[in-house]
Amino acid sequence: MSTSNSELESWVNEVARLTQADKVFWCNGSEAEYRQLVQQMLADGTLSELNPETHPNCYLHRSAPTDVARVEHLTFICTEKEADAGPNNNWMDPAAAHQKIDQLFAGCMKGRTMYVIPYCMGPLESPYSRCGVEITDSPYVVANMKIMTRMGDVALSRIEKGGGFVRGLHSIGELDPERRFIMHFPAELTIKSYGSGYGGNALLGKKCHALRIASYQARSEGWLAEHMLIVGVENPAGETHYLACAFPSACGKTNLAMLVPPKSHKGWKIWTLGDDIAWLQLGEDGRMRAINPEAGYFGVVPGTNAKTNRNAYEMIRHDTIYTNVGVTADNQPWWEGLDEGTPVLDWQGKPYDAKAGPAAHPNSRFTVATSQNASYSSLADAPEGVPISALVFGGRRREVAPLVYQAKDWAHGVLVGAGVASETTAAASGEVGVVRRDPMAMKPFCGYNFADYWAHWLSFAQRSDRLPEIFHVNWFRQDKDGNFLWPGFGENLRVLRWIIDRCEKRVGAVTTPIGLLPAAADIDIEGLAIDPAVLQELLRVDHAQWSVEMAALSEDLARYGDRLPAELNRQLQMVVEDLGEKNAA
Ligand code: GTP
Ligand code: SPV
Ligand code: MN
User: What is the second-level CATH architecture of the domain 226-295+378-584?
Assistant: First the structure.
């Protein structure tokens, strides 16, 4: 008997019988336990130690070469009615899904240890936090969960006090892509994941729990679980505004969350609350408040260097797990965009050959505790979260989307979010660089029908008149030769300033059919070598391109049929009419 919660105890016993695990190990979450697991993984080759002088307590994990990213085509939402999962999800009947995946789990942990990981998503003392228990046969998953969540005894005692928990069952199985499924049973608060050891497929507290299951729960409980970073922007007068920003995978959340202000911005400070997930609740005062359910970062490594993201660069020099990066001759981690050193081995441990591919996998990742981030906010553990001034959507768009624009009001903002589209990245398996529709950056993560999700979003307008302002940004506009038009990274603060000035009603805006844009003069470019013509281009709304964009959005929304809230169509029609395309859509 390892817990006073009989429901948990009997589930653990049931899983042990099904998987025929050799041993059951209850994780307590201590440092000693983490160190012992690391030693064990060093001994069996799951991890290798990186250069202890340059990178103390840093380890490298090489995943199976066919297991390097989320697998959306193998990810299912299993609701009784298919329509409840919606056209945005793969669906399977719950009974059929249980049967299919339980066959894979049967006997799969013979000869292995089964780890029981109680975890808490969110500050331990917060009423907004939710607990879960992940059962896994992967010590790599345990070590990552230790960094990414509040896990072990502290979470177990919260579970034992009541409030329930999400059940997550995971096995790496044979790491065979043909025997791999990530299944969600929202009504049962249950996740079953088989055959992958990677990131969002395997660290079940993250995308599976904190987004897919939580979004489903949030709908019935009146809150939102979003794929958003949370950042505080403090001006030289010491006033801080908090923003929550949703960009699709590998589109700049971690970077924006720990942005380093440019030299021209003396006295400005950035405070990181979270880099990937935000849980948003309406406070008693009607303001939206956010907590970060996570306690660590599972961040994209390539592109990280002292210039693009000094905070991340410093943060991952110690006590970090690297997955799928290359190494140098003196055993330091190496990746594309590091701007120093030379790789000798690639992410698969083969001699590096530039012609054969990158040294680091494009979706290589670091796992590191939030507390190692120099810009970590002292409010990140606040049970009541932080008040949000602006919600910002964004995507990776070579063309069409301007640098920044503001929605006219909340309902229009929901359309702006529903209209997010972005070029695909290496964060999920499949083709990279093709524009796909990714509403609210939640396409892979919403645990129910998007039509119902948008209705839920729209309903907030009836519940508060102090909602955040809504914006859209795009750091990724390119010229014909593929060069970025906007310098990005630290310079993005200039855009955040305009956003905050709008929230404070300190600055005007230019009204366009798609929303409110800054006048070029209202983006501070002091100390920035940018051609005024380029800034004009970044702030241009091309009506012809936007008509095509709205037609694509209209087609996407039409997939939701009658279930689509009429208000969303009304908002779309207003934009289309303003664009002078009365006959379109
Ligand atoms: P997930 O963890 O997959 O959800 O990704 P993310 O949204 O946190 O993206 P991240 O910040 O890790 O950035 C992904 C890639 O985009 C990295 O290679 C960054 O270097 C690059 N990137 C981030 N911000 C900018 C920017 O402002 N401009 C440009 N050009 N690239 C950026
Ligand atoms: C993402 O893909 O959005 C990530 C990485 O943050 S993963 O944890 O694999 O989902
Ligand atoms: Mn993400």
Answer: Alpha-Beta Complex (3.90)
